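Example 9 (inverse folding). The structure is encoded as follows.
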């Protein structure tokens, strides 16, 4: 499981533990911090962030990623920003550090509390992540995106968008998809990805 999959799984588990069906941006931040923590502690630059002190039960094992879960509008915006950051970083996939970097400009919720408590600025946060936020739990994965058919996650990575945005394209009919026989899993033809792209016409 990649670091961002681990982060989103923990975020989903946390949201469901609160009886919520929607993953909020704070859930994503906690999930990211959990994914790079050791024994409930995150060492990020000069800061030591204690998940326990944040009221997070870091011993909870993340459950399976639930395809039926929804993300708040703020969470989707953060995931889209993380995809752009990953692209700028030259990464082939979003990692937890890209999602953490996406929080640098946030001025509300848990991120705002951390900024106040630790004197964090956007620049110092990004610098700390760049120096010391390894995706240590990210197991090496072979590049399995070379085939003709892609999973929704792989297709979203190729387009540089969040997987929930891609699923919305499928639901609306913008992007053709096929279901594996007898299963819920879907696959998207690599050649169909261009169907959601349209030429940008310059304004006259």
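The amino acid assigned to each position is listed next.
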């Amino acid at each position: 499981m990649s670091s961002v999959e681990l982060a989103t799984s923990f975020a989903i588990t946390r949201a469901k533990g609160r009886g919520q069906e929607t993953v909020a941006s704070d859930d994503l931040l906690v999930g990211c911090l959990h994914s790079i923590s050791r024994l409930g502690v995150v060492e990020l630059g000069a800061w030591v962030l204690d998940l326990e002190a944040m009221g997070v039960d870091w011993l909870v094992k993340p459950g399976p990623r639930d395809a039926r879960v929804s993300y708040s509008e703020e969470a989707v915006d953060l995931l889209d920003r993380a995809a752009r950051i990953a692209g700028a970083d030259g990464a082939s996939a979003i990692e937890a550090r890209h999602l953490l970097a996406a929080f640098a400009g946030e001025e509300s919720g848990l991120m705002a509390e951390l900024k106040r408590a630790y004197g964090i600025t956007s620049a110092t946060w990004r610098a700390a992540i760049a120096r010391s936020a390894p995706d240590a739990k990210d197991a090496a994965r072979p590049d399995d995106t070379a085939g003709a058919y892609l999973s929704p996650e792989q297709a979203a990575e190729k387009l540089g968008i969040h997987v929930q945005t891609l699923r919305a394209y499928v639901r609306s009919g913008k992007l053709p998809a096929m279901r594996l026989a007898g299963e819920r899993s879907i696959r998207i033809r690599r050649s169909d990805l261009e169907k959601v792209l349209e030429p940008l016409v310059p304004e006259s």
